[in-house]
Amino acid sequence: MRPVRLFLIALQFLTIIPLPCTVPCDDDDLGRSAAFFPLVGLLIGGMLCLLDVFLSLWLVRPLTDALLVTGLVVVTGALHLDGLADVCDGIAARGDRDRFLAVMKDSRVGAVGVVGIVLGLLLTWQALVAVPADIKWQALLIVPVCSRLSQVVIMCAAPHARQGGLGALFISGMGYWQLAGALVLAAGIVISVSPVRGVVVLAATILTALAVRRWFIHRLGGITGDIIGFGSELCGIAVLVLFGIT
Questions:
Q1: Which residues contact residue 121 at a Cβ distance below 8 angstroms, ignoring those fewer than 6 apart?
Q2: Span 175-208, pLDDT tens digits
Q3: Residue 160 pairs with which residues in a beta bridge?
Q4: Are 154 and 205 in contact (CB under 8 A)?
Q5: CB under 8 Å to 176, separation ≥6 — which residues?
């Protein structure tokens, strides 16, 4: 039952999907649950596919895709968009490491953060619109899987940019076994759905996540929860763009 419990912990953290009861966990369980992040992504992708089938019966493609992006934001509780906004504000602050971290920690969202969210959503929507209709279901399944795999790649064995916070708890509790589990799960799902494109988007996901990880470790000396969310959004957009290339 332990794998089931860890999956439910991941589901509880990454989505607002209601569970019959709260699954108890200690600090280390948060990190261990990262191995099941791609499986949570598959569940989210399946929900998006069902929503697409329903909406497509009544609405034109651009509006359907806009509502799919909205559905993705709702089911995740806009968790990663918050990280995107905070990182954009931190980059715009143009200060030293301490200034960058202080701006990201501020609960207020600045003008650049708002622009970051708007551009992120706009790029996600337009990249989804550009995906050919016959492979749209593949994109809807694969993108959430890859974006959650990117979170595990960014977190694994990363130094903390600051003490405290959920990001630090996840990083402390996870290791290479969780990364290996997430990679195996993601590869199995993605390649099963799209054997040829799957290899390409997996490689793009890992390379993008590693680039984000490397830049922020160089810039800030470590990783925070906001950076994990930022990287997840960036990888999701990159994978969607690849699906739009015919």
A1: 69, 73, 81
A2: 889 999 999 999 999 999 999 889 999 999 999 9
A3: 223
A4: no
A5: 156, 157
